[in-house]
């Protein structure tokens, strides 16, 4: 099973998304959005940005 994005409403009434790994562990959480549609667009932006992304080690 692949990871998945979950869109949810937080306690403040804002919409957020989280990315869960296949084992159910949360690996990323998005900022708050005013609408569910905007949160879904946020997941799409992360998917586009992650495709082919590199890792920059800033500790060196």
Automatic annotation (TrEMBL):
InterPro entries: DUF1508, UPF0339_domain, YegP-like_sf. SUPFAM superfamilies: YegP-like. Gene3D superfamilies: 2.30.29.80. Residues 10-57 form the DUF1508 domain. This is DUF1508 domain-containing protein. It comes from Nocardioides cavernaquae. The lineage of its organism: Bacteria, Bacillati, Actinomycetota, Actinomycetes, Propionibacteriales.
């Amino acid at each position: 099973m692949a990871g998945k994005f979950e869109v949810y409403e937080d306690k403040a009434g804002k919409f957020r998304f989280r990315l869960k790994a296949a084992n159910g562990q949360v690996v990323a959480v998005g900022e708050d959005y005013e609408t569910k549609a905007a949160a879904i667009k946020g997941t799409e932006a992360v998917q586009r940005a992650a495709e082919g992304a590199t890792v920059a080690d800033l500790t060196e």
